[in-house]
Structures are given as structure tokens and as C-alpha cells.
Amino acid sequence: MKKFLLPAIMIMVALIMPDRAYTENSHDHHNHDGHHAHKENGFHIGLSIGWVHLKEEGEHHEEGEHNEEDGHSEDALGVHLHIGKRLADEGVLSKVSLGIGGEVIFSEEEHYGLSAYTAIHPWKGLKLAVGPAVEWSKHDDEWESHYSTHMEVAYGFDVQDIHIGPSFGYSTSDHGEHYSVGIHVGYHL
């Protein structure tokens, strides 16, 4: 897991420090309080990175941290990338977005996920998302796929043209579940 930490931090820094020049006229969006406001009706791209606790059911042949009755439990680094779009410029549908996301968990055995989601934005930077997903994992050199449900809660604080804040995720399938806690960095395109 340590070998993935430096590249993950570099990706996060690259998103936090965008090398993009703006003039006063090309980027002068302010709300009534004089604070910087993002265009909320366009596309949004986001990256969450953090700690994942992975728990799988069933028998595994690795030595150590699990047995046939309990299954497999492991902590690892996880990265989740998503893109979404608000359904409307104003009104109730402006509080709803649809999108897709991909996830990689850098555990001993390879884990990947692909999801579609619906997100509700009920208040300021708060996002509540849920959607169907497919997870792939490699056990004993064989790939398995499972349907899962992926849920995420994130809050973003505006910092220049991005938002950054805590994120919490949960995914469950008939094969197991995983929890994640991390940092979400997003940008409105």
C-alpha cells in the first residue's frame, strides 16, 4: 500500500493547485454576499482518496488475517473518481445530479468498481449519493464480479475554483462490504 501513497498524494495536489489563469472579466462570478460562487448547473468532476476497510465473506486461502467462517478483512488505500451533471439550472431539479464513478482499492487482491449514481445536494456543499455498481475482485488468480450498492456522503468547502472536504462511502454486495473515509476534491467544469 505504501507504494501507492505518493502517486495518490501527487494526484490530489495536482487537483488542488490547478494551473489555470483567469482574468477579472473571464471569471467574475460572485454571489450577493460578495463571496466566490461556482456555476452549479454544469458538469462536476471529483476525486476522493482515503482509507478503506474491506470485508469479504467466504473462504480465502491467504494466511493470517481471516478464516473460513469470518471471511477476509483488510485496510487499504482507495481512490474514487466521478463525473456528474445537475439536472436543471434552478428549481427542485437543480438539487439533483446524475453521474458515473470508478473506484480502485489498492488491497492485496485487486478490487475495482464502476457505478452510476443519483446525488441530492440539499444544503450548501453537502452531497448525498447512491447508486448501483459492479465490483470486480481477483481471488486466487480468478476474477469475480458482483452487483453492489454504493453510497457516499461528502461536504465541500470552496477554495478558489475547487471544493475540498471530507467524504464517507459505503458499498455492499452479496460478497462483502467496504467503508471509506477520505478527502474529496472537486471541480466544476
Structure summary:
The chain has 189 residues and is mainly beta.
What does this structure look like?
The chain has 189 residues and is mainly beta. Helix content is 8%, strand content 56%. It has one helix at 2-16; strands spanning 43-56, 72-86, 96-106, 111-120, 126-139, 142-155, 157-159, 162-173, 176-188. Strands 1-2-3-4-5-6-8-9 form an 8-stranded antiparallel barrel. A hairpin with a 2-residue loop joins strand 7 (157-159) and strand 8. The longest helix has 15 residues, at 2-16. The protein starts with a helix and ends with a strand.
Main attributes of the structure:
189 residues, mainly beta, 1 helix, 8% helix
Radius of gyration: 19 Å
Q: Tell me the structural class.
A: mainly beta
N-to-C span: 32 Å
Whole-number mean pLDDT: 79
* SSE series: HEEEEEEEEE
Segments where pLDDT lies below 50 for 5+ residues?
12-38, 60-68
Q: Please report the total strand number as a whole number.
A: 9
Shape: elongated
How much strand? over 45%
Strand ordering within the main sheet:
1-2-3-4-5-6-8-9
Largest sheet: 8 strands, antiparallel, barrel
Number of DSSP helical runs: 1
Write the layout of secondary structure elements.
Layout lengths: L1 H15 L26 E14 L15 E15 L9 E11 L4 E10 L5 E14 L2 E14 L1 E3 L2 E12 L2 E13 L1
Antiparallel strand pairs: 1-2, 1-9, 2-3, 3-4, 4-5, 5-6, 6-8, 7-8, 8-9
